[in-house]
Amino acid sequence: MSRLQLKHIAILLFSILPLVSSAQEEEINFETNLSKTKLGINERLKVEFKVNKNGDNFTAPNFNGFEVIMGPSLSQSSVWINGKRTYSLAYSYILKPISKGEKTIGQATIEIDGNTYKSVTKKVTITDAVDNPNAPKTADDIADENLHLVAEVSKGSPYLNEAVTVVYKLYVSPDIRVNNFRALDNPKYNNFWSQDIPVKRYDAQNATYQGKQYRSVILKRVVLYPQKSGNLTIEPLGIELFVDVPTNRRDFFGGRIYRPANKTVSAGSRTLRVKPLPETGKPADFSGAVGDFDFNVTTSKTNLNASESLQATVEVSGKGNLKLFQLPEPDLPSALEVYEPEFEEKVRTTVSGMDGKVTNNYTIVPSYRGKYPIPSISFSYFNPKTEQYETLNSNEITINVMEGPEDTSISLNPAGNPTKIIIPTGKQFHFIKTNTNFASIKMEPFYGSNKFYTLFFGPLLLIPIVILARRRKEKNELNVEGTKLKKVNRLARKYLSTAKKALGDEVKFYVALEKGLHNYLKAKLKIETSEFSKEKITEILRERAADEETVEGFIGLLKNCEMARYSPFSEVQMNSDFEQASQVISRLDKQL
């Protein structure tokens, strides 16, 4: 090899060495590892502080709540794999718990290249003594430490009727495999108006919980509006998980062996401190609206003729409890005929609460010519962001009726005073005639006349008509069951028509049946019962004097609708439920 070639090789090596040394520089990682995060007071805990680069002046934390049985034990390793060096330095301690409860392993420090690094803190739960403290962890033990169901509440102290979002998250350690789950008991949101926000996909995301890395999945979301002030409790959500947990054994190829386990986890109950709405500054027309709203009153036209109609719209839009308050009513002149309003709502519920608008549409028909003012209407609401009441006022609208009869019931002059009666002068009584032209009247005898025979025989002719009418009435009374059946069929067709069309398709039938039952109560009681729990519906029906048998029948149908989502139902059962729904609606229609 020539000198020139050696020179070129030396230059190449010197140019590569800095790149190799820089590539070998690694990010410093100083971590705390625990043998377990939950142990009995008679067990031992191994704590390891591990760093991937050599350092000096290691300082252990104060192990408050523990007694140090052994340590520190120093171990280090340096391994070359495919030309890459992996280094680790570890300080280990064996600790004995002194008392029960949640303990914290503090931060350890170490100096590396003149810089000080700190480990993260770790939480440990100390429980009652266990039977065999030296026994290896069971699958349930591993699942307990690596599965957590948490209810995350958006606000812990909301105002009355202010939206609160509850998100139920499942935190799963990366070492655990979740195969399936099922809900055991859904929370009962007593004293809340509630709306579920469906979770369409269970997407896992990386998250941190209690200082450890997990995968989190949202299982359930619900929006609550508290209906009373004070401390209100949200009952826990419980689920059963079917998981695979790792063991210390390996298969032939070196892979970790997993064991199946069933585990029940609960989110625990949560308590909200609901604040009442302030009395200071509350407007007289306040009807319970809480949020941030706009208010508007409009008419389809302002110029028309008598007997024509127009539409007046009272609308509230924005974000807040749109389904839980009454719209203000316009004060219209008596000369305008007003029909019952048609209520319309376009409201969607998201994780932040209700959003949309609610509207009352009034049909107005003027009877007389003239100008009729629709006075300004006020709408008041409480804004939880500003913590103040706000009042919005509509503009005054004038209805101009151009053609039609005049209203002569009250005649006023332009000054607004009653019109004076004018008395004519001169011959005031010239219209009274003083000459008469009477003619004699010929009297005919009553007996034997046509009127005599009509009055005499007329009642006799009415007797067969009365007999026929009475027999028809008795026949109708005997057909009471037929009349009831017709009424039942009419109500069933109105509220259960969709369910009847879906007979045979279990999912569609019970969805339509549940919707029909709620629509009937909505129409009958003027409330949105689909957002209430079965307990709340039971309470409402009892308050409206429905008998116990009817109430139990209605609630039983709702339970069947819920059970149909998880268990198969036969077509015979569907037909039976449809008939029972018709009968329950008929009985409720009489009792309510």
Automatic annotation (TrEMBL):
UniProt entry keywords in alphabetical sequence: Membrane, Signal, Transmembrane, Transmembrane helix
Coiled coil residues, start to end: none
Signal peptide: 1-23
Annotated transmembrane regions: 452-469
PANTHER family linked: BATD (PTHR40940:SF2), PROTEIN BATD-RELATED (PTHR40940)
This protein's name: Protein BatD
Protein species of origin: Croceivirga thetidis
Biological classification of the source: Bacteria, Pseudomonadati, Bacteroidota, Flavobacteriia, Flavobacteriales
